[in-house]
Amino acid sequence: MILFRSRFLPLNKILGPVKEAGDRDNMEIKQAKELLLSLLGKGSSVPCKVQFWDGSELSFGEGPPAFVIHFKVPDAPDALLTDLSMGFGEAYMKGDIEIDGDLGEVMRLAYQEDLFSRFSPRQKVRLYWLNLRHKTGLRQTKRDVQAHYDIGNSFYRLWLDQGLNYSCAYFGCDNDSLEQAQLQKIHHTLNKLRLRPGQRLLDIGCGWGSLAMEAAKSYGVHAVGLTLGAKQYELGCQRIKKEGLSDKVEIRLQDYREIPDKEHESFDRIVSVGMFEHLGRGNIPVFFEKVARLLRHRGILLLHSIGRIKPKDTDPWIQKYIFPGGYIPSLGETMEAAEDVGLDFVDLEDLRHHYDLTLGQWIRRFEANVSQIKQMMGERFVRMWRLYLNASQRSFRHESLHVFQLLYSLGRREDWPLMRNSAPISSPGVTKS
Q1: Is 0.85 topped by the overall pTM?
Q2: Residue 390's closest CA among 372, 363, 371?
Q3: Which residues have a Cβ under 8 Å from the Cβ of 341 and sit 6 or more positions away?
Q4: 55 in a domain, yes or no?
Q5: Phi and psi at residue 349, in whole multiples of 5°?
């Protein structure tokens, strides 16, 4: 980014005393336009238009605009100048910035032009402060998770599938329903674990319990699910009881680190879907150390997580408003930590396109119920979540996010099938491995 000559001072500080209000307005408009030109130039990869609070406009790129950004007040450009990601997010939440057209295309422009990663010195200080605030101890982890997942079951029911699966689905084709794709994800995941009746399965970050219940019903295992969301726990327990699975499925309101020593080496299989991103960078080794102690010898772990190829700091707006304490791990950080505790790497699959499709379904369902959500949660919340969902979809499509399914065994196994979707492992004379 070309650093604006203000060196991150607000526009009203740049201008100094101006005798006439009209002169001040004209100068503020001029400075705001210079800021936008310094960010995008005239050759924007996505054609768009910017309208300022006085009605004047700037156009970028070739062809009809994909969207129009309205700066409603002079403070809106100030916010971008101070901290692009946080400033845009907060100004949009307040209504100081409005978007006519597809918000997803705004995110496409930001990712293709790599705008949000061009951290100013002030942004770097903010990131350091956010990371300092969010230490990854047990108490802080619980607060962070509950801030997101305990918003309310009634909210999530409005736009998730019937099973309340809040993670990447698995599509056979683009036209699969969300319900079908989420059930396919569950079975795709469980098939990789090579489950057998009677085995003990631990689901770390079980949400509302759909995967654990399906594992018990379809594969005959005994499942233990862990969640830190009190509302997830309450509803999950109700669902288990309603399905008549209380003797096969248990959900605990418990952090994985709180599992007692007496349960070490007691699980044949461990699965974790969509929880790993909440650990924080410092807890990646801690997670794998605990998993290695909980698994039986030759036990299998499947880890399903958003990830990157190279390490990168968490976006400050996402960390403050959506996932406090969260960190998207790089593939190298994950695989090295797993290898360090004796987990043997078996398989890696990237479901990146599937999360693009999943988020598209969530966005459509969210918008179909937006009036009800607004009644429940308020306008600011709706704008915050609309931005989060659209930015997430476009980060998989245009930026560097992936969804990895990594498969490990504790100790080397020589009985893996040659093909990923082959029949389950069969070892003569071995009933629980």
Answers
A1: yes
A2: 363
A3: 285, 288, 289, 291, 292
A4: yes
A5: -130, 140
